[in-house]
Write a structure and sequence with these properties.
mainly alpha; 3 helices; 107 residues
Amino acid sequence: MNELEMQILQIISKAGESKSKAFEAFKKIEDSDYEGARRLLKEAKEIDVEAHKAQTELIRKELSQDGEDKLPVTLLMVHAQDHYMTSQLARDLIEKITDIFESKEVK
């Protein structure tokens, strides 16, 4: 496996880990454990930052190359972007759901 593939797999791995944490948080909401949900969402966000760093490194490499030496866009790279994007979306939505449910319980 080459360096590019390792970086792409890091994005996939970190995004998957982040999304798992977000859905663990969702389960905490069902139990009205909002503190636990927020803790898991914070962990998810920290993991997303690691995926973002790997993504940014790939973007930086692509921008520093010229013409024919550009990084190839592969199905694996597209798959990584999809995982990263959906992990962020899941986390953002679950954060909002946490806010809504917690505010309804406080009233």
